[in-house]
Amino acid sequence: MIKSILEFLSLSNLSYSEIIWVCIGTFGQLIFFSRWLVQLFYSEKNKSSVIPIGFWWLSLVGGIITFIYAKHINSFPFMLAQLIGIVVYSRNLYLLYK
Q1: CB 29 within 8 A of CB 85
Q2: pTM here?
Q3: Burial track 18-32 (b if 16+ CB lie within 10 A, e otherwise)
Q4: Can you tell me the distance from the alpha carbon of 70 to that of 2, in angstroms, rounded to the nearest whole number?
Q5: Which residues neighbour 6 within 8 Å (Cβ) at sequence distance 6 or greater?
Q6: Which of 27, 28, 56, 98 has a CA-to-CA distance to 65 between 20 and 30 Å?
Q7: Residue 43: domain span
Q8: What's the domain count of the chain?
Q9: H or E element at residue 6
């Protein structure tokens, strides 16, 4: 069963270190995705569209972890997209704390 799941996810022929890196990349993406859940929760709570500060922190942390993964796999377009996002998230946090 586990073997078929790994084959379905194209992870069956990865080394241990490669699996660790896939886990790191997935973790970064999950943190990045969770920002939308935080935003949804706060918007529902306030009955208005709200972007809480946690949204920007999750964006920044998820973006940094994902950037590290993108660097590991040497994907320039992936790194560039994350780097641009990291600049935007950092700027928003700076403005909020200023």
Answers
A1: no
A2: 0.87
A3: eeeebeebeebeebb
A4: 26
A5: 12
A6: 98
A7: 34-98
A8: 1
A9: helix 2-8
